[in-house]
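step 3/5: co-fold with zinc ion
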Amino acid sequence: MANFATHVAVAGMVATGMASGIAVTGMLSWSDSLILGVFLVAGTLLPDIDVDGGRPQRWLFSLLALAAAIVASSLTTRMQTTPLFTVPGQTVSCEAIAAGFLVWLLIRYPAAYLFQRLTRHRGLCHSLVVGGLWGLGWVYLGLQCLASEPLTIWLQGMTLFLGFLVHLVLDEAYSVDINNARIKRSFGSALKIWEPDFPVGSLLATAALMGLVWLLPYPHELIQWLHRGVQLLG
Ligand SMILES: [Zn+2]
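step 4/5: write tokens
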């Protein structure tokens, strides 16, 4: 399999090519195109979050812990609390700080530990179904909670999945030893739709993916944008 540096380097190249292509043709602004490039690199890190103690896992759980802490603190602030100090536009209370810290601690350590125990490398996390869940999950979060612009969030979700796919294809390519025309034992373990050794998890992930497809609105904006792109190329 390809290592971390190879994944980041390849994704970086694909992201640069993609972002400049989109920006040069005027399909998106330079800043929006660069953000898409970042999403592609982020997507490429996601399949290996099941490598215990690996960088993608540490970064993901640090990010999740931070996001959860911010949500917990702002929810606590809305309750009857004791003001501690004020930052512009916001009163920070003891309770909000305590709730934020507690939630951060819970996600960063016990939840991360549980995730390590429940997953094994190149299991379900390394499959296309989970890649689809990341992409559509991000679109759902953006539309429901972040009030994102539909085209922007659909493009981000799609790029996240594309980065995920680049990772799986690269891992699979690395399992073919070209010089010796020999296929390594890892062949077929990287690019897979789901995890045959974990049927219950695979079934649940597929059900969740179908649920998201059912819940999400039809991506008119994305289809129009892609159509415009095809016309530009044609
Ligand atoms: Zn991998």
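step 5/5: annotate
The mean pLDDT is 86.
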